[in-house]
């Protein structure tokens, strides 16, 4: 495979959870752009040395 980029999407897990799924480090070393969305962004920060903390407020959808 020769991707032009990688998207790490969201999911119900949290990177601070035990056994949280993480991307293989080869993804970050592949030399292509990596976009993290929600969980994907947290995972990327966590794996690359950033600090991820639990929020104080839950993100809720806007009422209809």
Describe the protein in words:
The protein has a two-stranded parallel sheet. The protein is α+β, with helices and mostly antiparallel strands. The chain contains two helices and two strands; from the N terminus they run βαβα. Helices cover 22% and strands 9% of the residues. The chain has helices spanning 25-29, 39-47; strands spanning 6-8, 34-36.
Short description:
The protein has 64 residues and is of the alpha+beta class.
Which SSEs are present, and which pair or pack?
Layout: E1 6-8, H1 25-29, E2 34-36, H2 39-47
Parallel strand pairs: 1-2
Mean pLDDT across the residues is 87
The amount of beta strand, in percent, is 5-15%
Helix/strand order, N-terminal first: EHEH
Number of strands: 2
Largest sheet: 2 strands, parallel
Overall body shape: globular
| Helix-strand makeup class | alpha+beta
Q: Total helix count? A: 2
Report how far apart the termini are: 43 Å
Query: What percent of residues adopt helix (DSSP H or I)?
Result: 10-25%
Q: What brief labels describe this structure?
A:
alpha+beta; two-stranded parallel ribbon; 2 helices; 64 residues
